[in-house]
Design brief:
This protein is an alpha/beta fold and 240 residues long. Helix content is 49%, strand content 15%.
Length: 240
């Protein structure tokens, strides 16, 4: 009888030890595999980008609307326009919600230029932005080629300057003279279907200015949060 009792006790002890080992291993595994993800990791993200500025009136009105809704945005600026309107450039640069990218110095088709001319277009614009700005952390190391025209030579020269290229995922045609507010909204509603989208807009477009508040409301209703373009680029490639 005592033999059976002793056997049962040994069995219980072995079972208890096994359970303790498994429970401890489970805790260690869970602790080692837990990842602290940011709150918006699984959110749908959209970046509003505005090319060709800064412009008097238009860019200022865009700033007013974005500020009203506390929206982040990215502006790809032209060097000659910055020289004409340095105060508007400073308005963009000093706002924590905005990032500024390079759209060349004089908005030429880079594929039609020599290597030296390409270098000057990109470097001169980048150098100008840094020379005028105090909040240089808002200037990002990305450029957008005018008209989306680029080739291998363009990207290689840009890389030597320290610039990466970014295009877009949603092309709105807002640069066309006959584009309407309804056209813009319909286009964005139709094309914005992914989890990460970069929308191309132009800061000198009246249609864009007229539609901007409704664009913001539309994208919010579709579940998007607004981010700067570099946040999306850190996760997705939009260079082709």
């Amino acid at each position: 009888m005592s033999f059976h009792i002793a056997f049962k006790r040994i069995h219980i002890i072995i079972f208890s030890i096994s359970f303790l080992i498994l429970f401890t291993a489970k805790q260690v595994f869970e602790e080692k595999t837990f990842i602290n993800l940011p709150n918006n990791f699984f959110s749908k993200k959209v970046a509003l980008t505005f090319d060709d500025g800064p412009h008097p009136y238009y860019t200022e009105k865009i700033i007013d609307i974005l500020s009203k809704y506390n929206i982040k945005a990215t502006f790809f600026l032209v060097g000659k326009q910055i020289e004409k309107y340095p105060k508007i450039f400073k308005l963009l640069l000093d706002n924590k919600n905005y990032k500024i990218g390079n759209h060349t110095y004089s908005h030429k088709n880079l594929t039609k230029l020599s290597s030296l001319e390409i270098y000057n277009e990109l470097f001169k614009a980048q150098n100008l932005m840094f020379s005028l700005g105090d909040n240089n952390q808002n200037i990002i190391s990305y450029f957008r080629p005018p008209g989306g025209h680029y080739d291998y030579k363009v990207t290689q020269i840009a890389e030597k300057i320290g610039l990466k290229m970014v295009l877009w995922s949603v092309f709105t045609n807002d640069h066309l003279e006959n584009i309407t507010k309804k056209d813009l909204l319909d286009s964005i509603d139709k094309l914005c279907v992914g989890d990460k989208e970069i929308i191309l807009l132009h800061s000198g477009s009246q249609a864009t200015l007229d539609a901007l508040e409704d664009i913001i409301k539309l994208l919010k209703n579709k579940g998007y949060i607004f981010v700067n373009v570099d946040e999306i680029l850190n996760e997705t490639d939009f260079s082709s």
